[in-house]
Amino acid sequence: MLSLLWNMKKKEDKKPPPYISVSQVRTYLMCGMKYYFRYFEKIETSPTGPMIRGSSVDKAANDHFDVKADNGIGLKRNDFVDLAVSEHDFSAENAEMDITKQTSRDRLAEISKKYHTTHAQKLTPLSKGSVQLKINGDIGLDIPVLGFADLITKDRVVIDNKVRKQNRVNDLTKDIQLVTYADVANFSKVGIALVTDNKTPKAEIYTAQISDDSKSLVRERIKLVRNGIKKNVFLPAPEGSWYCSEKWCSFWSICPYGAG
Ligand code: SF4
Questions:
Q1: Does a structural domain hold residue 9?
Q2: Residue ranges lining ligand 1, Cβ < 6 Å
Q3: Has residue 149 been placed in a domain?
Q4: Is 209 within a domain?
Q5: Mean pLDDT lowest for which of 5-9, 29-33, 71-75?
Q6: Which residue in 181, 198, 44 sits closest to 110, CA to CA?
Q7: Segment holding 225, helix H or strand E
Q8: Closest C-alpha to ligand 1, atom 5
């Protein structure tokens, strides 16, 4: 299967995009082979249950902050939840669900309520254009870095929304996505507005000050990634990685380091 796929794809002319996105960098750092399948071979995979719960909250939050930038209030709670749930139902059609669709829908409703009563009230956009802000900047590579910041708040914090199982985050001063956004858009504080993905969701905002040293270190990591991609170096996930498994990797069946 894999050799067939490889031979098939080799015949095609694959032009790389004229930019490198932050999500491409994160994928490459997680697993070079995953990057290869997703961005080089352009193999599409179905979204998962956790992914669609996260993107549904993102969608409602974006609309809420867009309205809040205009009227200072944003969406009412029921409208916020309805929007998130309808987004979920639409995306769930083609998703690989981790729990039943109805359970996922009910959980998403609770997550959305939690987001609305906490982060949606506490955070205020800097301006209308600071919701889903396109970041497209030069960090000394041969191509620009591209990404979308969920929100820049009125106190100039770059915020990323996250819906995830655990109520904790890694060191934000090393976060490729947030530090790059702060670097390119010239901000010095970043944060994650997190809601946990479980029956009784919890909400927390984690923030960190980003120094010039942090920005330089992240730039260097992105340069290493860019060089690896240019040289077609696609290493597999480190041995023993939890995500290099049939359960967590969509490319398991075709990857030579999985079952391919
Ligand atoms: S099976 Fe492992 S090495 Fe292969 S793409 Fe998935 S995570 Fe990477």
A1: no
A2: 31, 33-34, 236-237, 243-244, 249, 251-252, 255, 257-258
A3: yes
A4: yes
A5: 5-9
A6: 198
A7: helix 212-230
A8: 34
